[in-house]
């Protein structure tokens, strides 16, 4: 029987992403802090529709906004690892990355009483050491890569990629990749950013973005019997009024199409079981 899974992942960054870019003045901090208010709106919406979700929270955000994070846990949602800070592991030394991973795990254990099953890299970039660290610390899955659109797969390690040579691929691991996409992320569509280096216009019409997001589910439904589509949302982005209406519209439209909503952890476990039974041959 066909089964089409939808995972809503909320990157609860607040101001940590701006701080990682050196933006620590009051205005960007307040822009990120709107996400604390918006998280309450989102929790109410998820409760009304009985939709479980996965929340990826940097350790510094857990330690700053404990009450809101406790509400996320009390509502039954998954809490995944999203770094200690929002600095990409690719920009950290191996020692800094290890320390941040452990500090983030410790924060999640204090919050939830259990170790996180999933990891999502800040800024969706990992280092040459990340995969080994995640396996060492017992993660089931990670969700920072884009090698498929609606089928999980097993992460490789040890790839050798040079600009002037054919690729040499490493070995697959037991770590499950729950793929994501910038096209299914609210930030590039909606957020206006101005720095010394560039301007990111954002501010797109939410109804048009909603059409794209629904169409990706339609394509999955038309082309495979089993799949997982992950949407990535940031409370301070999606939590604005007209975008909340779009999020509600997305949930309602996908529910009418027969979508099964679950956490990324639950979807990863289902994928692992189907692979073990030989029902799925993942790519890449």
| Rounded average pLDDT | 96
Strand content: 15-25%
What would the CATH topology be? TIM Barrel
Let me know the largest β-sheet: 5 strands, parallel
What string, H for helix and E for strand, traces the elements in order? EHHEHHEHEHEEEHEEHEHHEH
Q: How would you classify the helix and strand content by structural class? A: alpha/beta
CATH 4th-level superfamily? Glycoside hydrolase/deacetylase
Beta-strand segment tally? 11
Tell me roughly what share of residues is in helical segments.
40-55%
The CATH top-level class label: Alpha Beta
Low-confidence stretches at least 5 residues in length (pLDDT < 50)? none
Structurally, the number of domains stands at 1
Count of DSSP-assigned helices:
11
CATH architecture: Alpha-Beta Barrel
Given the C-alpha coordinates, what overall shape results?
A: globular
- Distance between the amino and carboxyl termini: 25 Å
CA gyration radius, whole angstroms: 18 Å
GO molecular function: hydrolase activity, acting on carbon-nitrogen (but not peptide) bonds
Domain NodB homology: 19-262
Organism: Stella humosa
Family: Belongs to the polysaccharide deacetylase family.
Task: Identify the notable features of this structure and list them briefly.
284 residues, alpha/beta, TIM Barrel, 5-stranded parallel beta sheet, 4-stranded mixed beta sheet, 11 helices, PgdA-like, NODB_dom, hydrolase activity, acting on carbon-nitrogen (but not peptide) bonds, Glyco_hydro/deAcase_b/a-brl, Chitooligosaccharide deacetylase
